[in-house]
Amino acid sequence: MRLLFTSRASLGHLQPLVPLAKVARAAGHEVIFATGAKAASVPIALGFPTDIVGLDFSTEFFQELQTEKPLRTEIRRFAFTRLFAGRELEPRLRDIEANCLSRRPDIIVHEVAELAAPIAAAVALTPVVTVGYGPLLDPDVAEAAGVAAEPAWRARGLSLPRWAGLYRDLYVDPCPPALQIRAIDDLPTVQKMAPSVPESHVPPEWMSDVSAPLVYVTFGTIYNRDYELFRKVLDALETLPIEVVVTVGENNDPANLGPRPRTTRIFRFIPQERLLPRCRAIVAHGGAGTLLAALAYGVPMLLLPQGADQFYNASRATAAGAALSLMPENASVHAIATSFAQILNDPAFAARARAVGAQMVAMPRPEEALARIEQLPH
Fold first, then answer.
1. Is residue 144 within 8 Å of residue 81, measured between CB atoms?
2. Which pLDDT score is estimated for 123?
3. Which of these ranges, 38-47, 183-192, 307-316, 359-368, has the smallest mean pLDDT?
4. Residue 272 has pLDDT above 90, yes or no
5. Could you read off the pLDDT of 177-226 as tens digits, one per residue?
6. Where are the domains of the chain?
7. Residue 149 and residue 114: Cα distance in Å, rounded?
8. Main-chain phi, psi angles of 60, to 5 degrees
9. How high is the mean pLDDT of the chain?
């Protein structure tokens, strides 16, 4: 069987597809990736045939966000309608349609923000599998994305299906039940699959010198440009009896955070699997990858969401009792220090994070999800 895996040109969107692609290849299936140039290095490094399709991530979108300033409750709708279904959809769809003609996949597997795949699959009469990367997309956002994508459906003589064609044949759900929303029960067919979390690796050598509780600070790879937020977090944490490790991102300069006490260590990048198993807690943005990785290791969080799905994820983790969150206008040094002290001093946060981690351990492995995909008629 030939499987075509498609994603936006974003590592955070592509990475959740990789475990499924690996087990499919190991089972003898032919696996091909189609994604933008900025994300293609991952499947290429893993030895998967990879086609470059569509547009790369657009910095113009950030400019639009800054200009139009949608409410935080509307940021994700803005992204799905203006960027994913607007600017990105048609260029990627044309490339994937050509890909389907040349590659002739038996099944298309796509991440939930890649809205071209359901259309290409409908044209090619091919089953389509949607893979999530966090809590289920709010149904209202999915419907709005469908309305924005409708011209592409109509142009191909197709009627617009519910939810922009997402979840048509199967939804692979990586979200632990404690974080999931009730709308998951409305989907036609759902297969749970444990999210991909790298196994614990050897810690950095300097960690042998850490004597106080270790706290990790990260704002991911995209929403990591606000040095002032980093400084506020460090000013807050440095009032507490802890040691701090910060990663600012490959393209940022640690020196911009100024001189810091010896209990604070600042790096561009450290793989989080080297840190998370040894952390008491983290301060993060609420991106799905970091959120689920921290919970997999039972690490509670203070979340400072800034955009994308982060406000949504933060609300789910907070509702599960594994995190506290502060909105941007409330994220003062005092509020950060007070909230984080609460997480450190109340063992209930760590207990709930461990409980969510236990749910993730109990979720089906990618092999079970693949078995469900193999049952689809093709």
1. yes
2. 96
3. 307-316
4. no
5. 999 999 999 999 999 999 877 777 788 887 787 888 899 999 876 667 77
6. 2-195+363-374, 205-361
7. 11
8. -65, -30
9. 90
Residue 61 CA to residue 115 CA, distance in Å, equals 17
Full 3-state SS string of the chain: CEEEEECCCCHHHHHHHHHHHHHHHHCCCEEEEEECCCCCHHHHHCCCCEEECCCCCCHHHHHHHHHHCCCHHHHHHHHHHHHHHHHCHHHHHHHHHHHHHHHCCCEEEEECCCCHHHHHHHHHCCCEEEECCCCCCCHHHHHHHHHHHHHHHHHCCCCCCHHHHCCCCEEEECCCHHHCCHHHHHCCCEEECCCCCCCCCCCCHHHHHCCCCEEEEECCCCCCCCHHHHHHHHHHHCCCCCEEEEECCCCCCHHHHCCCCCCEEEECCCCHHHCHHHCCEEEECCCHHHHHHHHHCCCCEEECCCCCCHHHHHHHHHHCCCEEECCHHHCCHHHHHHHHHHHHHCHHHHHHHHHHHHHHHHCCCHHHHHHHHHCCCC
Q: Torsion angle, CA of 101/105/108/110, rounded to 10 degrees? A: -70
What's the pTM? Answer: 0.89
111 φ, ψ to 5°?
A: -80, 160
pLDDT at 65 (0 to 100): 62
Nearest to 300 by CA among 242, 244, 354, 363: 354
Topology agreement, domain 2-195+363-374 and domain 205-361: yes
Q: What topology is assigned to 2-195+363-374 in CATH?
A: Rossmann fold (3.40.50)
Whole-angstrom Cα distance, residue 344 to residue 59? 37
Distances in Å between the Cα of 287 and the Cα atoms of 133, 218, 348 are 10, 10, 23
Tell me the average pLDDT across 4-15.
92
State the pLDDT confidence band at 261, using cuts at 50, 70 and 90: confident
Which tens digits make up the pLDDT trace of 320-343? 999 999 988 888 999 999 999 999
Q: Which residue has the tokens 């206008």?
A: 329
CATH of domain 205-361: 3.40.50.2000
